[in-house]
Amino acid sequence: MSATPEYEVYAIRYADQGDALVSAGSLMLSASHEQMIPGMAYYVYVIQGHGKTIAVDTGYAPALTDRLNSRLFFSGPDGMRKLGHDPANISDLIITHAHYDHVGNLEDFTNATFHIDTEMMPIVEGTDPCHPFFRQGYGKRDCATIRRFKAEGRLVEHANVSVPWPGIELIHIGGHCRGQMAIRVNTRRGPVVLASDAAHLYQEWEEERPFGVFYDMKAMLDGYRTLSDLSGCKREFMIAGHDVAVMGMFPAPAKELEGDVVALHADPNPSS
Ligand SMILES: [Zn+2]
Predict the structure, then answer these.
(1) Residue 5 burial class via C-beta count within 10 angstroms: exposed 0-12, middle 13-18, buried 19 and up
(2) pLDDT (tens digit, 9 = 90+) per residue, 172-193?
(3) CB–CB of 10/45 below 8 Å?
């Protein structure tokens, strides 16, 4: 039997919420309102190896920057360009979930096949009998784009756990939103878990403090433990989806990418 392929995985930080600290209690239920923590960072990812380049999420549409009160460094697709990838040449894009900050630039990937959790589709197609609270994370334009991809035969739906390519697993976690996926990618230092919004912050995961936006609280809490199982409870194998700490944990792949991109397949920095 041949060995499981190993991939390179890059986290690209395209935006953040600025330098001001925020209260932990404003992000996580049961966390202290007195504890001040950094705001969230926004990432897209690129997985490459074995002749494939796979994008993970696209970032929010730049037009939303003011409304989100965030600091946009560059768009998600431009972040991928910094790594040398033209979005038009990317063959596959994994949508970890369809919240606006993950699917705002889908149209840039003109030749991609898109991968999504099948549990996401009732929300995207408007058949989930959901409450307005559950709709707030989704853009009408983004959902229409995903429906168009489906009509064009460019959308692949995945259920539970699937392995679309050897060494890359898509894992349904649910909870935060109905069709939330995490991704486990084999690298030369072992499997790395991209939690996406199954765990926005390390504190959320490690202390099991529920994030303030969720579809199913029980599934979200169970999801934190699934992430522990997948990562062996080790931070260096568990990449929280919006935590600023990720940028300090790993080296940049090149000097000119410092502060923008980190290599998650590389050994963690000694101080982390
Ligand atoms: Zn998010």
Answers:
(1) middle
(2) 998 999 999 999 999 999 999 9
(3) yes
CA of 241 from ligand 1 middle (Å) equals 7
CATH number for the segment(s) 8-261:
3.60.15.10
CA of 5 to the centre of ligand 1 (A): 28
What is the rounded distance in angstroms from the CA atom of residue 12 to the CA atom of residue 9? 10
| CA of 135 relative to ligand 1 center, distance in Å | 14
**Amino acid at position 52, single letter:** K
Q: Residue 3: CB partners within 8 Å, gap ≥ 6?
A: none
User: What distance in angstroms lies between residue 101's CA and the mean position of ligand 1's atoms?
Assistant: 5
Q: How far is the CA of 11 from the centre of ligand 1 (A)?
A: 14
pLDDT one-digit tens code per residue, 7-24: 999 999 999 999 999 999
Q: Name the residue with tokens 């001001």.
A: 20
Q: What percent of the chain has pLDDT over 70?
A: 99
242 alpha carbon – ligand 1 mean position (Å): 7
Residues ≥6 apart with Cβ < 8 Å to 101? 42, 59, 60, 68
| The amino acid at 43 | Y
Distance 95 CA to ligand 1 centre (A): 11
The reply to whether the predicted model has a pTM over 0.90 is yes
Question: How far, in Å, is the centroid of ligand 1 from the Cα of 85?
Answer: 22
Domain residue extents for the chain? 8-261
Structure tokens belonging to residue 221: 């809490």
